[in-house]
Design brief:
The chain is of the alpha+beta class and about 375 residues long. The protein folds into 2 domains: about 5-260, Up-down Bundle (Substrate Binding Domain Of Dnak, Chain:A, Domain 2), CATH 1.20.1270.60; about 320-375, SH3 Domains (SH3 type barrels, Roll), CATH 2.30.30.40. The chain contains 7 helices and 5 strands, in the order αααααααβββββ. Strands 4-3-2-1-5 form a 5-stranded antiparallel beta sheet, with no helix packed on it. A hairpin with an 8-residue loop joins strand 2 (about 345-350) and strand 3. Helix 2 (about 35-65) runs antiparallel to helix 5, helix 4 (about 90-105) packs antiparallel against helix 5 (about 110-185) and helix 5 (about 110-185) packs antiparallel against helix 7 (about 220-265).
Length: about 375
């Protein structure tokens, strides 16, 4: 009991001494041991890494789960070390509603059939989103959380300990200075100065040891950056895969709707302003439907690769043409196609029997087939 009381009293004394030293430093009444410039740079880089990791983590969580209530629920499950229950994605829920609407409104009607097709596509989009969220959480969010909840807590603990060691060191320096001043006035015996010097040596040793431990941990931030860089690449890969899947699903749906609309509304063509270039990593604006004028039928017209297009027989439709801006460079595969340069304006129109992914393009006295996905149709 006496030992515990003495320890508590000693701890209280140390805490009080540190508090006094800290306060006097703040008011400029005490000297402070400064860390070297390299150490300060390590501290600054560590703080920046922690702050930006937190921001990136939080915003990625918002990206993967926009619903704040759902994020809170997932956070609580993780803290309780319980499995997060499976949640239906917005796309899957929309697919369910569309399928039910088609069943009730008439699955054999044009509207019902279209609802069913879109529902199937939305279901596939929802499944792709679920896979993306799962992969991104494991490969990106988890490593960021592990750093903040593991390595950073260790660094923070050692930094606090270093701060205490520095306060102890500076307090010992202050006591030695006072002891020497008192000795000069012959108010203290030499053994008081010796005691202060011994305490200073011990404090200096403990400070140096703790500074080295903290320095090693701070230098480990470089390894953290390498690990986060690898995780970032994996996140980009999973995001690229997700958007590529979405692109394929929507392109399939677009083709289905294009063929069905041609049967329902003869004489129209469903095009797209989606700049879906072959590199799937390119950013694509929102897909939109545009009705293109249709010209007279041309003998021998067939989808690309099946038969040569008789360009001499192609004439603009009587209903008119449209202007289009080229989004990407395109190299013609054969003489029936028209080479394109990004940002140029061309005249386009459709012909009956053409592949819905292609249009006839004209630039000056040149004409040929052009891919719809390389164009932005202008009103």
């Amino acid at each position: 009991m006496d030992f515990n009381m003495k320890k508590l009293a000693s701890d209280a004394g140390i805490f009080f001494t540190r508090a006094v030293q800290f306060t006097e430093e703040k008011f400029g009444q005490a000297e402070k041991t400064e860390l070297d410039a390299h150490f300060e740079n390590l501290l600054s880089r560590a703080d920046s890494t922690k702050n930006w990791t937190e921001k990136i983590l939080r915003q990625t969580e918002v990206l993967l789960q926009p619903n704040p209530s759902a994020r809170v629920e997932e956070f609580l499950y993780e803290k309780l070390d319980r499995k997060v229950p499976s949640r239906v994605t917005n796309g899957e829920l929309l697919a369910q509603y569309m399928a039910e609407a088609a069943s009730e409104l008439g699955p054999t009607t044009p509207y019902g059939k279209t609802l069913t097709k879109v529902a199937e596509a939305e279901k596939r989009l929802g499944a792709a989103e679920r896979d993306f969220i799962h992969t991104a959480s494991i490969n990106f969010l988890t490593p960021l959380r592990n750093f903040l909840e593991g390595d950073w807590k260790t660094i923070s603990k050692e930094r606090r300990l270093l701060q205490n060691r520095r306060l102890d060191l500076d307090a010992c320096k202050a006591r030695l200075k006072k002891a020497k001043a008192a000795e000069a006035k012959a108010t203290l015996w030499n053994d008081e100065v010796d005691k202060a010097e011994q305490e200073l040596r011990v404090a200096q040793t403990e400070f140096d040891r703790q500074a080295e431990v903290t320095r090693l941990l701070l230098e480990g931030i470089s390894s953290t950056h390498v690990n986060h860089l690898r995780c970032l690449h994996e996140f980009v890969e999973s995001q690229t895969t997700y958007y590529a899947q979405c692109y394929r699903h929507m392109l399939d749906l677009q083709k289905q709707l294009g063929s069905s609309q041609g049967a329902i509304f003869p004489g129209t063509f469903v095009g797209t302003t989606e700049p879906a270039s072959p590199p799937l990593s390119s950013t694509s604006p929102t897909t939109a439907a545009a009705t293109m004028p249709v010209g007279p039928s041309v003998a021998g017209l067939a989808p690309p690769g099946e038969a040569a297009l008789c360009l001499e027989e192609v004439t603009p439709p009587a209903s008119g043409t449209r202007k289009a801006r080229v989004l990407y460079d395109y190299e013609a595969a054969d003489s029936s196609e028209l080479a394109l340069l990004a940002d140029e304006l061309i005249t386009v129109y459709s012909l009956p029997g053409m592949d819905p992914d292609w249009l006839i393009g004209e630039r000056g006295n040149k004409k040929g087939k052009v891919p719809v996905t390389y164009l932005e149709l202008l009103s």
